[in-house]
Amino acid sequence: MPKITKIEVQKKNKERFNLYLDGEFEMGIDMDTYVHFNLKKDQIVDAADMEKIQSYDQYRQAVNIAIQFLSYRKRTDHEVIQHLQKKEISESVIASVIDYCHDQRLIDHEDYANSLKNTMIQTTDKGSGIFKQKLKDAGVEQTLIDAYAEKYEFEQPMEDIIKVANKILRQKKGPEIKRKEKLTQSLMQKGFSFEIIKAVMDEMDFSQPEEELDELLQQELEKVYNKYSRKFSGRKLINKTIEALMRKGYKYDKIKVKLEESGIVDGTEKIEGNE
């Protein structure tokens, strides 16, 4: 039967050893494998022994890969499994590694969810919807997702969300109804719930100087009128212009006044600003 003739520390990795059988290099093993099997020189090892040693060392290598992967930040089962699969590690070994990680508290989905919650609230302008999606993508259980999304909404300061909303609103110009629609859409895209958005909207000031709105209407009128004048004329041109401006949120009476101010009577005129 084969006999261990030498066990030496590897030159490039002091945590691993070279195992020699009958004077020939057999395989590399890590320190845990070495200790686990209490390997020593002149020890007799049969085929069954070597199969156990090889299997255990593969497991230990996978554990070390997982530990290194987990050293950068918190991970979930799903993330660790994907990482190990890319290393072409067998499913049975991966399952054992995941069990080990849970036993050693290296993977803890509740801790993961809580940590992500705190980080996102402190460093991002996103709502609970984005938080929930991140947890789902990471493979966290739905019960934990629901529980921590509720905590997320409770702990995220309303004043911070209002600051985000005001920043967005400053970039949105036009009639109040459209500004409300655009703000609502932007907040939804950031993952805020309908309840949160409604509460924020109630706190917002959508008022604008009348001169600013008047100037915006004039600009939109010129743009829309000149666009439709390529296809339509007369009353149809005026109607198309009015419809387009109303879709943009401008009120009918304001549009009529602006058309009159621009000297448009039958839809054949040119607007002064574009002559």
From TrEMBL:
GO terms for biological process: regulation of DNA repair. It is found in: Cytoplasm. Keywords: Cytoplasm. The keyword Cytoplasm applies. GO terms for cellular component: cytoplasm. Residues 156-201, 210-256 form the RecX third three-helical domain. Pfam families: RecX_HTH1, RecX_HTH3. Residues 62-101 form the RecX first three-helical domain. Modulates RecA activity. Belongs to the RecX family. This is Regulatory protein RecX. The gene is recX.
